[in-house]
Write a structure and sequence with these properties.
The complex is a heterodimer of chains A (140) and B (135).
Chain A: H1 10-19, E1 29-30, E2 37-41, E3 45-51, E4 60-65, E5 68-75, E6 85-89, E7 94-101, E8 112-116, E9 119-125
Antiparallel strand pairs in A: 1-7, 2-3, 3-9, 4-5, 5-7, 8-9
Chain B: E1 13-14, E2 28-30, E3 33-37, E4 41-47, E5 56-61, E6 64-69, E7 80-84, E8 90-96, E9 107-111, E10 114-120
Parallel strand pairs in B: 2-8
Antiparallel strand pairs in B: 1-2, 3-4, 4-10, 5-6, 6-8, 9-10
The chains are: A mainly beta (140), B mainly beta (135).
């Protein structure tokens, strides 16, 4: 018997999210479009990733305020030798600012950012007091 | 030179499928490139964020310089995807290199998501400056 077996795939899920319902959580919102971000979330935290090739960690600035995070910086032009001439220049340069809103209050002290291979990963933990408490229902 | 207050733009271009299909499920992108030439070298800069150094291969065969980068992506544990604006994927791009390049001495370096290829020019290809005399 032939079974149409389709294992869960990260590629397919990203495609699906992008094609149909780009904003599943309308709560995660942002303004401009550079850099593009992907947001992973669970009850206690969100993980934001963005591609920022050619920048170093000192070129990037992060600002957290209540439920928003602002990612800004500048990609500078390459310093090339004076006698050099360009044959092709496709990569873009310039400054950027992007603000992303999450649907909860961020615990500012616990925000972590890792920048490796041109990709930034920011973990935004939800403030303890903001996490909904589970109340056990007891039956008499 | 870019203007000082220029804003960054998003550019990510997917590879157009040619005669052969990819075996990997993830999409593939054409890395954006800058190419410049000096008296000594031709330098190619490619934006390939998200790949590990060891997953980049640079090959040269019959004057075709090809660059491949593979991403190794895992689901962050216990998280679900809430917003997807960009796609992850492999990178592939190739360039035709002239005989004027010392093909055995091509150097590749990867840093902060950018691959830098340095192609030294062959001795005879270096520009010969001929002084122009008056008269």
């Amino acid at each position: 018997m032939y079974l149409n077996y389709r294992p869960l795939s990260i590629w397919r899920e990203i495609d699906r999210l992008q094609r149909g319902m780009e904003r599943v959580f309308d709560n995660y919102s942002s303004d401009r479009n550079y850099p593009l971000v992907n947001v992973w979330a669970n009850e206690k935290s969100a993980l934001i990733t963005a591609e920022l090739p050619g920048l170093t960690k000192d070129d990037i600035e992060l600002n957290v305020l209540e439920n928003t995070i602002t990612l800004s910086g500048e990609r500078k032009t390459d310093v090339i030798p004076e006698d050099a001439k360009y044959h092709r220049q496709e990569r873009s340069y310039g400054s950027f600012t992007r603000t992303i809103r999450v649907p909860y209050k961020i615990d500012v002290d616990k925000v972590e950012a890792v920048f490796a291979n041109g990709v930034i990963k920011i973990t935004l933990p939800r403030a303890e007091e903001d996490i909904p408490k589970k109340i056990k229902v007891e039956i008499n | 030179m870019a203007a000082k207050n220029k804003e960054m733009e998003v550019q990510k271009q997917e590879t157009i499928q040619k005669e052969s299909e990819r075996t990997r499920e993830c999409p593939s992108f054409v890395p954006q490139a800058d190419i410049y030439e000096t008296d000594e070298n031709i330098v190619v800069l490619l934006d390939m964020p998200g790949v590990e150094k060891d997953n980049i291969s640079v090959g040269l065969e019959k004057n075709i310089l090809s660059v491949n980068g593979y991403v190794d992506l895992e689901y962050p544990e216990d998280y679900s995807l809430a917003l997807a604006e960009y796609r992850y994927g492999d990178y592939e791009r190739s360039f035709r290199v002239s005989d004027r390049v010392e093909q055995d001495n091509i150097e590749a370096r990867y840093k902060d998501g950018v691959l830098r290829l340095t192609l030294p020019k062959a001795e005879e290809a270096k520009e010969r400056k001929i002084p122009v005399k008056i008269g």
